Amino acid sequence: MSAVAVTGLRRSFGGNTVLDGIDFDVAEGEFVSVIGPSGSGKSTLFGLIAGLDTPDAGAVTVGGAPAAPGRAALMPQKDLLFPWRTVLDNCTLGLEVQGTPRRRARDRARQLFPAFGLAGFEQARPSELSGGMRQRAALARTVLQGRDVLLLDEPFGALDSLTRTEMQLWLQEVRMRDRWTVLMITHDVREAVLLSDRVLVLSARPATIRHEVRVPLDRPRSLRTLTEPAFVALERELVSVLHEDRGFTVTDPTRSARIDSPPTS
Ligand SMILES: Nc1ncnc2c1ncn2[C@@H]1O[C@H](COP(=O)(O)OP(=O)(O)OP(=O)(O)O)[C@@H](O)[C@H]1O
């Protein structure tokens, strides 16, 4: 059974068709990235998978049942940590919303802190954390909800490139331990290839799945992976597909691996 199955998904807002027939499956334990032009509907797609929005047509199942709040855990683009709560109590929020008593929620959160590089910061406020630590806290909150599927919407978008690379390798490590099923939105082609088993490329709006690549590189992947010919070839393929959509032909993907260009309309 697929962890996530998306069939014929359509979503419009007013007269603006955003998703125009999206079909894909995610297997249990798979890491799939979704890339595509800004405004193509990636966050809209995640809202539908998270059960926070309803499609105009088509269907989404998570673990074989129709998408509904609480079936997949969504980490939104902004970390949304509450400044007045301690880091520990920010991490327990999802559990508390589910009805877990605060004490038990705190015990469970505390157990994650060492692996998430947050040990010793339980009583700190979010403002005392670095950008990478904030993202790890937001991810801890998402993971703690104990869902079968994690939806990460640009989890590292706000980080500098060094921290970002460290976080990517860290995410790979913690995820290999627990085999989460992950769907991740990113604007960074290199990040998508480094972390994923498969990368889906959305077209510009109205979005369809324009392209898909499998990433058959061994794990764990490391900084060295970034320069392997197979890695570079996949990166080049994805960058070319993305830029073709915008009428460009890419000859040197290493100079244009990011795609955070302005919305097309
Ligand atoms: N609730 C809503 N009401 C009206 N329009 C919406 C709503 N949600 C999304 N949209 C529109 O849908 C389109 C796609 O937005 P979405 O945020 O899904 O794109 P995205 O690919 O995630 O963008 P980015 O990469 O910039 O984060 C945009 O034109 C946006 O204005």
From TrEMBL:
InterPro entries: AAA+_ATPase, ABC_transporter-like_ATP-bd, ABC_transporter-like_CS, ABC_transporter_ATP-bind, P-loop_NTPase. Residues 4-229 form the ABC transporter domain. The gene is ssuB_1. Its EC number is 3.6.3.-. The keyword RNA-binding does not apply. Keywords: ATP-binding, Hydrolase, Nucleotide-binding, Transport. Pfam families: ABC_tran. One of its GO terms (molecular function) is ATP hydrolysis activity. It comes from the Bacteria. This is ABC transporter ATP-binding protein.
